[in-house]
Each structure stands twice: as structure tokens, then as C-alpha cells.
Write a structure and sequence with these properties.
single chain, 298 residues, alpha/beta, 9-stranded mixed β-sheet, two-stranded parallel sheet, binds 2-acetamido-2-deoxy-beta-D-glucopyranose, signal
């Protein structure tokens, strides 16, 4: 039985450590998840704080009060790949122009701000950007000028009351695979969108004023409007006649999720919850094992 005791000791130590980690993770204030990632929601920051590890790769700062980025504050974090400034006080992408300091930036999330002017040019130096998420800003105008984004795969502009998606902008996104334009006020898409988005896999367009009949069959087949199309045999006939190389055919159409697009949601909360749940499960299991061994030992 001495053997079992030596077995139990490390277990109880581990469970104490796990509980400490668990409780420090659940704390609602600033959390450093690891040396590569900080998550600090709701800290009332008005600028990027200076006290994080310089090697940090993920800066997740939603629900703060940052309205502007200052190069002096960004300079020490040259390795940032993911910046999340959801639900801050940003009113224009112009006030983010210091972001050019983040040469390695791959993912940017600026949803739930009040960005009225969205200028792709501001991100001209961030040539590694793969994903931009800027959902639910109240009234957004997309400025036509643009620079080439060779790596951008995913662009989410849901819920911005956007009235026009300029073809100048579309031309800058040769690698785009996912485009979320739901809940806007678009009535048309650029006519050549099919040619200039050769890699497109999904275009989410529901809750706009776009009429399915006017949509290019190829784009329709990639979009979440295909259900509407399916329910209208007229449209289906049009599409067959109008075929430009890609047949609008039910068996060629992917199933789209009805509703949330996981990529477009603020995932800091999900990461946070996942980590907490994982720790909780581990901790509970360890406690159960310890109690079990203890009573068996008696
Ligand atoms: C956010 O910052 C601005 C100044 O940039 C300030 O006027 C405002 O009161 C702040 N809001 C909150 C909720 O802290
Ligand atoms: C459609 O978009 C408007 C404006 O963004 C939004 O208020 C509304 O809730 C959306 N409707 C649905 C069914 O998503
Ligand atoms: C739809 O596509 C499938 C294969 O992808 C094919 O077998 C079928 O004949 C097509 N139907 C029409 C109506 O073109
Ligand atoms: C899709 O969502 C709409 C509105 O959110 C709803 O009316 C419809 O029933 C949903 N369809 C399916 C198949 O879930």
C-alpha cells in the first residue's frame, strides 16, 4: 500500500496546480494564456499596453476603448500574427494605419466597432494577411482604392449596411476563398466577380437586396442563396439557359450552414471557454481519481 501512497501524492499535487491554473483562468480580467498569446477583454485600454512579452504572437483585446493605434506602442511587438480589437472605439481604418508595423500580421478582427470608412489601402504593408473580419460596424463605406493582397483568403463584412462592393476592391483579392457579405444593403455585385475571384469557394449574401435571377450562375452556386433559387423553378430554368461553363445543378451545390459562420465570430470567447472547460474536466477527473484511490486505500 505504500506504493499507492507514493502514487497518490503526485496526483494531489497535480490537482492543486490544476485548480490554481483553473481559477486563474476563470478570472475575468486580463489573462495571459501563454507566452505567445494574451487575451485581455474589458480592461478599458485606450491603447495597446506596453507590458506584454515582446515575442507575443496573438494580441486579443476585445471590449476595450482603443480608437487608434500608435506606432510607438506597436513597435515592440513585431511578431504579432493575430490582432483582435473587436468592440473597441475604432471609427475609421485610417486610425489603424500604424498597423503597418505588424509586418507578419495574418489575421485581423475589428468587428463591433463604428468603422464608417474602410480603406484597404491602410493594410498595404500587411501583405501576409489571410483573414480580415470586420462584421457589425454600423454603416461602412468601402473606399475604392486598394492594393494587392496576395494571401487574403477570408473577408467578413457582415452587418455593415454596405451598399456597394467596388470591383476595384475585388480585383485586389486574387486568393479569396470565403466572402461574407450577409446583412448588408447590396443590390448588385461587380459583374466580373467570377473572373476576378478565381479561387472563391463560398460567398454569403443572404439578407441583401440582391435578386437571385440577376446573379451569375457560378456565383450563385457558391452562395447561400441557392436555396431560394432551388425553390423557384423559373430561376432554375434561367440558370440552365444562362449556363456559362458551370452548371447550376443541385448535386454540385455544397450545403451551407444556415446562420453562424464560425470564421466570422469573435473566437477569443470560444478559446477562453474551451481552455476553461478543458481545465475543469482535467481537474474533476484528477479529483475523482484521487478520492477513489484514497478510499480504496482505506
Ligand atoms: C473611451 O476613450 C475616450 C477617449 O479616447 C473617452 O472620452 C471615453 O470616455 C472612454 N470611454 C470609456 C467607456 O471608457
Ligand atoms: C438583416 O440585416 C439587418 C441589417 O443588418 C439586420 O438588422 C437584420 O436583423 C437582418 N435580418 C436577418 C434575418 O438576419
Ligand atoms: C447534375 O450533376 C450530376 C453529377 O454531378 C449529373 O449526374 C446529373 O446528370 C446532373 N443533372 C443535371 C440536371 O444536369
Ligand atoms: C434558415 O434561417 C432562416 C432565418 O434565420 C429560417 O427562417 C429558416 O427556417 C432556416 N432554414 C433552415 C433549413 O434551418
Amino acid at each position: 500500500m505504500a506504493n499507492l501512497k507514493t502514487l497518490v501524492m503526485p496526483f494531489s499535487r497535480i490537482s492543486v496546480i490544476i485548480w490554481v491554473i483553473l481559477f486563474s483562468t476563470v478570472k475575468p480580467d486580463c489573462e495571459k494564456i501563454s507566452t505567445r498569446s494574451v487575451m485581455c477583454p474589458g480592461q478599458k485600454y485606450t491603447e495597446i499596453p506596453q507590458h506584454f512579452e515582446p515575442s507575443i504572437k496573438e494580441l486579443i483585446l476585445p471590449y476595450n476603448n482603443i480608437s487608434q493605434l500608435k506606432a510607438d506602442n506597436l513597435k515592440q511587438y513585431l511578431d504579432v500574427r493575430y490582432l483582435n480589437l473587436d468592440a473597441n472605439g475604432i471609427e475609421s481604418t485610417h486610425s489603424l494605419k500604424a498597423i503597418n508595423v505588424f509586418k507578419n500580421l495574418e489575421r485581423l478582427s475589428i468587428s463591433d466597432n463604428h468603422i464608417s470608412m474602410f480603406e484597404f489601402q491602410v493594410f498595404a504593408q500587411n501583405v501576409h494577411l489571410k483573414e480580415i473580419i470586420a462584421n457589425d460596424n454600423t454603416n461602412m463605406f468601402l473606399i475604392e482604392k486598394c492594393n494587392f493582397f496576395p494571401k487574403l483568403e477570408s473577408l467578413c463584412l457582415k452587418g455593415n449596411n454596405i451598399q456597394q462592393f467596388p470591383s476595384e476592391v475585388v480585383k485586389c483579392l486574387p486568393n479569396l476563398r470565403h466572402l461574407d457579405l450577409r446583412n448588408n444593403q447590396l443590390s448588385t455585385l461587380p459583374s466580373n466577380i467570377k473572373e476576378i475571384l478565381p479561387k472563391i469557394e463560398t460567398i454569403l449574401l443572404s439578407n441583401n437586396s440582391i435578386t437571385v435571377e440577376e446573379l451569375d450562375p457560378f456565383i450563385l452556386s457558391k452562395s447561400d442563396l441557392h436555396n431560394e433559387a432551388k425553390s423557384s423553378s423559373n430561376v432554375k430554368n434561367n440558370l440552365v439557359k444562362n449556363d456559362q461553363g458551370v452548371v447550376f445543378n443541385e448535386s454540385n451545390i455544397k450545403n451551407f450552414d444556415n446562420g453562424t459562420d464560425s470564421r466570422s465570430e469573435n473566437n477569443s470567447g470560444v478559446i477562453f471557454a474551451a481552455i476553461s472547460v478543458t481545465f475543469a474536466v482535467i481537474a474533476v477527473s484528477v479529483v475523482v481519481i484521487v478520492v477513489f484511490i484514497y478510499f480504496r486505500n482505506k
